[in-house]
Specification:
Blueprint lengths: L4 E4 L5 H16 L4 E4 L5 H8 L3 E4 L9 H8 L6 E6 L4 H10 L3 E4 L5 H15 L24 H15 L4 E5 L6 H11 L6 E5 L8 H4 L15 E5 L7 H12 L6 E6 L2 H11 L2 E4 L10 H10 L14 H9 L5 H14 L2 H4 L18 H24 L5 H10 L4 H8 L3 H10 L4
Parallel strand pairs: 1-2, 1-3, 3-4, 4-5, 6-9, 6-10, 7-8, 8-9
Helix pairs in contact: 2-3, 6-7, 9-10, 11-13, 13-15, 17-18
């Protein structure tokens, strides 16, 4: 298979070995075919035969010549672009290489030189797209995830999301209840961007790495996540102590020309407003399932279609009566809870779970065009719905007003830090402090 990127550095030098490894890792993260080769006899001919789309080339190749030898060999191959990445900080070297056919010269060792190489790789691939392949520096989400939009609320949400993607907003804030689909919408926005590379998705509630690795180089990750057209999605930013918000504000001011986008997700209105005020974040509100009842039918059909026949124990007959019955229920877990219930409905073993299926409420019994099979289906959906809510309630973090007051005292009244320490939202901290007699 033809390489998108071929790396040829003099890896006998330890610094260049590390540079080659870091570059290879970052290119792989962007979904591209990449290889590394070392200087060896006949290296110029090897490069010519491999015909990479982009060649990242060192100047001095040990005992096997220089970059000029390689460039002379591949000069006739217009489909190969070359970046000279070397520690030979010489104007003569740069001019000679460019005259021999190099597309760019980047000095190794200067500040953020790896970023410069990755950006140049992106530019060269965009200028010379493959005619026979759809491979490009785009994410694994080249096709937007399916988001039902029969309801006016969903259509309005997607219109705002598309406008944000096309207008190149730097920071986008997704405000939505638990299970409403924040991560799915983030992937949709990433796919709608005219220029996009890798998609990184993280739960900030579980984040235990250095926040600097998101915005700047770190010893652990090397190049920051927010680089080279990437989209970074950080969910549950209500658990931020304020450090992330502060660094995001600085990043936005310092990198105005960057093609990268930071998307943050939260269920807390105060948090969303803070990002809007301090970082000029574009807030997109995700409607709850109660506001999207017209989307239940297509959503249920999509979930059912995602299972092959071998995985299903029964088909989901999306009759108007069934959809109306589902719509009449409350779904605090929104789309995620509904999805779990539908999956159970088409895969559950009724013989094994009949003994603990709940009785249907009076309003859902003897529906028009109902049958015993459909009522059993509805029973499974109701059982799964109740089970989901019981588990969610069990996993909720309960914080007492007394504990809240004690933690706030330790952090000098900082709501963000207090919320982070207790594993809850700023809104809950505010409610508890208000209930106990003020902040």
């Amino acid at each position: 298979m033809r390489d998108d990127v071929l790396i040829l550095l003099n890896e006998r030098e330890s610094a260049k070995l590390r540079s080659a490894e870091q570059l290879e890792e970052q290119v792989v993260l962007r979904g591209l075919a990449v290889s590394r080769i070392k200087p060896q006899p006949g290296i110029a001919e090897i490069v010519r035969e491999r015909r990479p789309r982009v060649l990242v080339l060192d100047y001095l190749l040990g005992d096997y010549g220089t970059a000029i030898d390689v460039l002379s060999e591949i000069q006739s191959q217009k489909e190969t672009s070359t970046i000279l990445w070397t520690d030979e900080a010489s104007a003569h070297v740069a001019v000679t290489a460019m005259q021999a056919g190099a597309n760019d010269y980047i000095e190794m060792g200067i500040n953020r030189s790896l970023d410069k190489v990755l950006n140049t790789v992106q530019d060269l691939l965009n200028k010379n797209p493959l005619k026979t392949s759809k491979r490009s520096l785009s994410s694994q989400y080249s096709e937007p995830p399916s988001i039902p939009s029969h309801s006016s609320a969903a259509r309005e949400m997607l219109t705002k999301a598309e406008n944000s993607a096309l207008s190149k907003e730097r920071i986008i804030v997704l405000l939505g209840e638990r299970g409403s689909g924040r991560n799915t919408l983030a992937k949709w926005i990433h796919s709608a961007r005219p220029f996009s590379a890798a998609f990184h998705e993280m739960d900030f509630d579980l984040w235990d790495a250095d926040i600097d690795s998101i915005f700047s180089e770190s010893r652990l990750l090397g190049t920051p996540l927010l680089t080279c057209g990437a989209t970074v999605m950080l969910d549950h930013v209500e658990f931020d102590s304020g450090e992330l918000l502060d660094k995001a504000e600085r990043w936005r001011k310092d990198s105005l020309e960057s093609e990268t986008v930071l998307i943050v997700g939260t269920s807390c209105l105060d948090t969303a407003q803070a990002w809007e005020r301090l970082c000029q974040g574009k807030v997109i509100t995700i409607p709850s399932l109660a506001e999207r009842k017209d989307d239940i039918l297509p959503f249920a059909q999509n979930v059912s279609k995602s299972f092959d026949k071998k995985s299903k124990r029964r088909e989901l007959e999306c009759t108007p009566e069934l959809i109306n019955a589902i719509s009449s229920l409350e779904w605090p877990g929104n789309m995620r809870q509904l999805q779990a219930a539908i999956v159970e409905a088409i895969t559950a073993d009724l013989e094994r779970c009949k003994s603990f299926l709940p009785a249907l409420p009076e309003a859902l019994r003897n529906l028009p065009s109902s049958s015993e099979a459909r009522e059993e289906l509805l029973q499974v959906i109701l059982w799964s719905k109740n089970l989901w809510e019981q588990n969610a309630k069990r996993n909720q973090r309960s914080v007492s007003a007394l504990k809240c007051k004690q933690v706030l005292g330790k952090v000098n009244g900082n709501l963000r830090i207090a919320a982070a320490m207790m594993g809850t939202s700023i809104q809950q901290v505010r409610e508890l402090t208000s209930a106990s007699g003020g902040e």
